[in-house]
Design a protein that fits this description.
CATH superfamily of one domain: Trigger factor ribosome-binding domain
Shape: extended
Largest sheet: 5 strands, antiparallel
CATH class of one domain: Alpha Beta
Number of strands: 11
Radius of gyration: 34 Å
Helix content: 40-55%
Distance between the termini: 105 Å
C-alpha cells in the first residue's frame, strides 16, 4: 500500500491518495464472491456452483467491484491514518481513481483532521466562587415543599370555585363549531391559577358551582404549538363536578415523625439545613469548575472544521431523539409541536455545538500540555462503579472497548478541570440576596414621609 498525503495551507483538510496492490483487490473480490456465490444462478450450473470466471463473464467483470471495495477499504483507510498519525474528525469523502481487475486500486479520501489548539492562559487564572448562605427562609421553603407533598385533597361543596382550588371538570372545545383533537376530557383535575390551560380559561372557571354548566370563550395564542389552532377563537362547553382543596398537615413534631426519621421538628430543620449547606457547597464547586473551563476556553484559539460541527449536530439530534422516545414521541413530532424545522434546529444549535467541540478540544490540550495521566486503577474504579450501578459483570464490561475509551476520555476531562481549579486563584463572591427586612424599613420610611407630607398640607 502506498499513501500520499497532502494538506491545505490554512485549513485542517487532508487528502490521502491511496494505492492498493492489485492482488489485495483481487483477494477482496474472491472473498465477496465466496460470501455471495450461494445466491447466484447461472444456466448450466447448480445454484451456487458456478466458478468466479464464469460468473464474471455472465454478469460482467465489475459485478463484485463495489462490494470488494467496501470489504477491504475500511481496514486499509484506518491503517493509512494510523501510519501517518492522522486523527480524523470527519467522515472521509472517497473518490475512486482506478478500480479494475489486474490493476492497482487507487482512490482518494478527503477528510478533516483534529485541529490544533492554541492554548491561552489556563494556569493561575482568577475564578469567582459564590458564597451561598442558608437562611431561615430557605429552611421554611423546604419544609413548605414537604408539607405540600404530604397534603391531602378534601372536597368542598358549600361554595363556588376560588383561585388555587382543584376543579374537577368535563370540557369539550370547538373552533367555528368543529371539535378538534385533544380538546375534550372528562373528570379532569384542573388547578385554578396554575396557568396550564389557555389564557383566560381558568379565570372563567372561578365562580362556578357544582353541577353548573358553562360555555367558556377563549382565544388560542398566536404562537400556539398547533398551527391549525393558533390565533383562533374557541368555545369550551364546561361542566363542574367537584371542588377540591389541599389540606396541609400541621408543622409539628408529629409531622417530623411522619416524613422523616426524626422525632422532633427541630431535628428535621437541622437536617434540612445541613443538606442545604452541602447542596450549596456542591453547587458552588460546580460553578467554580464551569467558570474555570469557560475562562480557559475563551482564552484559547482553535479553527473548528465544518464537518466536525455537522457531526456534532448529528449527535445532538440523535441524543434528543433518544430522550424524546422515552416520552413517547419522535423528533419530527417534537419539531412540529414547537413550530420548527430540522434546519431551524440545526441553525439554532450551531453555536452550542461549536462551544461543545471547542471545550472538549481545549480540555484535551490542557491534559497533554500539563502532562496529566490516567492510570489503569482509575479506569478499574470507574468500571466497578458501573458494574455496581447497572448490575453488570465487570469482566464483561472490560471487553467493551468503546466503553473503556469513553471512561478514559471522561477521566481526562475530569483531571483537566481539577487541574484548572487546583491552579486557579479562587475569589469568594458574596451571594446577592434581597435583604427583606432592610427593604421593609426603607418602605416604612417612605410611607411615614408621605403621611407627614399629607398632614402638613392640611
Amino acid at each position: 500500500m502506498e499513501v500520499k498525503v497532502s494538506r491545505a495551507e490554512d485549513k485542517n483538510e487532508v487528502k490521502l491518495e491511496i494505492t492498493v496492490e492489485s492482488k489485495v483487490f483481487e483477494d477482496g473480490i474472491k472473498k465477496v464472491f465466496n460470501k455471495n456465490n450461494k445466491y447466484i444462478s447461472i444456466p448450466g450450473f447448480r445454484k451456487g456452483k458456478a466458478p468466479l470466471n464464469i460468473v464474471e463473464k455472465f454478469y460482467g467483470a465489475e459485478i463484485f467491484y463495489e462490494d470488494a471495495f467496501n470489504e477491504i477499504v475500511p481496514e486499509i483507510y484506518a491503517k493509512a491514518l494510523e501510519d501517518n498519525k492522522i486523527e480524523a474528525v470527519t467522515r472521509p469523502e472517497v473518490e475512486v481513481v482506478q478500480m479494475e481487475k489486474g490493476k492497482d486500486l487507487i482512490f482518494t479520501a478527503k477528510l478533516a483532521e483534529k485541529p490544533e489548539v492554541k492554548l491561552g492562559k489556563y494556569k493561575g487564572i482568577t475564578v469567582e466562587k459564590s458564597d451561598y448562605t442558608v437562611t431561615s427562609e430557605d429552611i421554611e421553603k423546604d419544609l413548605k415543599t414537604k408539607q405540600e407533598q404530604n397534603s391531602r385533597m378534601v372536597s368542598v361543596s358549600d361554595r363556588a370555585v376560588k383561585n388555587k382550588d382543584i376543579a374537577v371538570i368535563d370540557f369539550d372545545g370547538s373552533v367555528d363549531g368543529n371539535h378538534f383533537e385533544g380538546g375534550k376530557a372528562e373528570n379532569y383535575d384542573l388547578e385554578i391559577g396554575s396557568g396550564s390551560f389557555i389564557p383566560g380559561f381558568e379565570d372563567q372557571v372561578i365562580g362556578m358551582k357544582i353541577d353548573e354548566e358553562k360555555d367558556i370563550k377563549v382565544k388560542f395564542p398566536d404562537d400556539y404549538f398547533s398551527k391549525e389552532l393558533a390565533g383562533k377563537d374557541a368555545v369550551f362547553a364546561v361542566k363542574l363536578h367537584e371542588i377540591k382543596v389541599k389540606e396541609l398537615p400541621k408543622l409539628d413534631d408529629e409531622f417530623a415523625k411522619d416524613v422523616s426519621e426524626f422525632d422532633t421538628l427541630k431535628e428535621l430543620k437541622e437536617d434540612i439545613k445541613a443538606k442545604l449547606i452541602k447542596g450549596n457547597e456542591e453547587k458552588a464547586k460546580r460553578e467554580v469548575e464551569d467558570n474555570a473551563v469557560k475562562i480557559a476556553v475563551e482564552a484559547s484559539e482553535v479553527e473548528i472544521p465544518e464537518g466536525m460541527i455537522e457531526i456534532e449536530l448529528d449527535n445532538m439530534v440523535e441524543d434528543m431523539n433518544r430522550r424524546l422516545q422515552y416520552q413517547g414521541i419522535n423528533f419530527d413530532q417534537y419539531l412540529n409541536m414547537i413550530g420548527r424545522t430540522m434546519a431551524d434546529f440545526r441553525k439554532e444549535s450551531r453555536e452550542g455545538a461549536k462551544n461543545s467541540i471547542k471545550t472538549r478540544l481545549v480540555l484535551e490540550s490542557i491534559f497533554k500540555d500539563s502532562k496529566l495521566e490516567v492510570n489503569d486503577d482509575e479506569v478499574e474504579d470507574k468500571l466497578k462503579e458501573l458494574s455496581t450501578s447497572y448490575g453488570r459483570d465487570i469482566e464483561e464490561l472490560k471487553k467493551n472497548d468503546i466503553l473503556i475509551d469513553n471512561i478514559k476520555e471522561g477521566l481526562k476531562s475530569e483531571k483537566s478541570i481539577n487541574f484548572l481549579v487546583d491552579n486557579a486563584k479562587i475569589v469568594t463572591k458574596k451571594e446577592e440576596k434581597k435583604d427583606e427586612k432592610k427593604d421593609e424599613k426603607v418602605e416604612n420610611k417612605k410611607v411615614d414621609k408621605k403621611s407627614s407630607t399629607k398632614k402638613s398640607s392640611k
